[in-house]
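re the bet — no i am not wrong, look at it urself. input seq straight from the record:
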Amino acid sequence: MVQSPPANIDRRDLLPGLFPDHEEWLFISGLAGASRDTASLTGDGAHLYSMAGTMGAAVPMGLGMALSAPDRKVAVITGDGELLMGIGALVTIASVQPQNLTVVCQDNSLHGETGGQKGHTAETANLEAIAQGAGIASTMTISEPGQITNAAAFIAEAPGPRFLLTRILPTPPCDFKRDLDMAACRVRFRQNFLASI
């Protein structure tokens, strides 16, 4: 059994280091912390569709976006608990091989939205190993702040699809109040996307 390395990354420092050119991406973000961190990165921009109350849906939605917009770079930002809810999506990603898709999992080994209960990755589950087993060839795990630069190069250079596991400390997400009107966010995201075609 290969366990994930201990976490040593403050999540609030992660995404700016991974996506210095965030305007060039379409983002789908998962629940709670992942969405707040991504909204902080983008200024809750029109190139972000953040989820609310749809645990497990970010990766499948990102896959659909990557397939429907093959000329755009698509990134899914999700958490470990949410990823485990829809783990089968990794198999589908490996099967269809969208070259423009990157999945970033922020793994803090707990369920932050429901009270901080310990998650499966605190014990035996290794999400990079699961992604590899699903058939995703480009995978990487980071657990130290000094590895963020290498991870940004991985995102920019490794063949897609890419899976990046980031072992983060159980620190609070970015203090950013995002728009929780999902209907309005959908319209904004769609209009921005269509205007860019």
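see?? The chain has a mean pLDDT of 90. told u. also The radius of gyration is 15 Å. so pay up
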